[in-house]
Amino acid sequence: MTIKEEQEILLDLLKKTHDFCEENGLRYCLTYGTLIGAVRHQGFIPWDNDVDIFMPRPDYEKFWKMTHEKPIADYIKCTNYRDDPKNHYSVIRVCNTKTKIYLKYLREQPTDMGIFLDIFPVDGIWDDSKSHWLWRKKLRFNQRLQVSDLYGQRERKGWKKKLRSFLPLIFRNKNNIHEYKIDEYAMMCDYETHEKVIDIAEYQHFNTYLTHEDFDHPLKMPFEQYVFNAPQRYHEFLTAGYGDYMQLPPEEKREVHDFDVELV
């Protein structure tokens, strides 16, 4: 399957997800490379085969519940660690079930994983970066365990990485306990009562943030032949994460997600 064909499937997933959110009053916005694509290319980055969106935690939980009661479409399935013991990600993946992919870099393949878009939960950030240090340590520790379990680090070089590779043997991820813990610690910083917000369940991007305004009153940004939600602070957010994001990276740094696809 070509990049263009994968992008067509991803665009359909994004449009269906957008329509579902609009119909049910759920907030979201484009993020990461998808947001760069919208700003710089008014669509996909030409070599990108990935779609990412942010969703405030209250809407994220509603989305999860609602899509399990009534799927977005008969060929679309939403999945994450809560319904698949082989899925060790902290995001919701919106999958096209007419396709099946094999992610070469994973230790264990999730069940029924088709071409997907990722929805990242957005939680609050405490104003004082030095406070709640124990919470931060616990969150970071479980994130390290998750990464080790997800990708498998036993073959990595360097004594620090080798030492970390033993952590999953001591702290086993039975029933996806690491992912449950990550969400538990992330939700301790409540979205509704904190103005600064970001996806701390997946990463600790405390050097940048969004606000409620980015989700309550998003920009309408062209993307391919459609219009999707984008954060008002997109320039500050992208600059903090990518620097001069309007400059095309050199060809050797143009990353494509490495997976095999088959039609089912």
Descriptive report:
The protein has 264 residues and is α+β, with helices and mostly antiparallel strands. The chain is built from 9 helices and 11 strands. The strands form 3 sheets. Strands 1, 2, 3, 4, 6, 7 and 8 form a 7-stranded mixed beta sheet that branches. Strand 9 and strand 10 (226-230) form a beta hairpin. It starts with a helix and ends with a strand.
SSE string? HEHEHEEEEHHHHEEHEEHE
Write down the Rg. 18 Å
Mean pLDDT: 91
Percent of residues in helices: 25-40%
The helix tally amounts to 9
Shape: globular
State the secondary-structure class.
Answer: alpha+beta
Task: Enumerate the spans where pLDDT stays under 50 for 5 or more consecutive residues.
Answer: none
Oligomer: single chain
Largest sheet: 7 strands, mixed
- Cα distance, first to last residue? 13 Å
- Range of strand content: 15-25%
- What is the number of strand segments? 11
Summary?
With 264 residues, this protein is an alpha+beta fold. The chain is built from nine helices and eleven strands. The chain has helices at residues 3-24, 32-41, 57-69, 133-151, 159-165, 167-170, 177-187, 212-216, 234-242, and strands spanning 29-30, 52-56, 76-79, 92-96, 99-103, 116-124, 196-198, 210-211, 219-223, 226-230, 259-263.
Write the layout of secondary structure elements.
Elements: H1 3-24, E1 29-30, H2 32-41, E2 52-56, H3 57-69, E3 76-79, E4 92-96, E5 99-103, E6 116-124, H4 133-151, H5 159-165, H6 167-170, H7 177-187, E7 196-198, E8 210-211, H8 212-216, E9 219-223, E10 226-230, H9 234-242, E11 259-263
Parallel strand pairs: 2-6
Antiparallel strand pairs: 1-2, 3-4, 4-6, 5-11, 6-7, 7-8, 9-10
Helix pairs in contact: 4-7
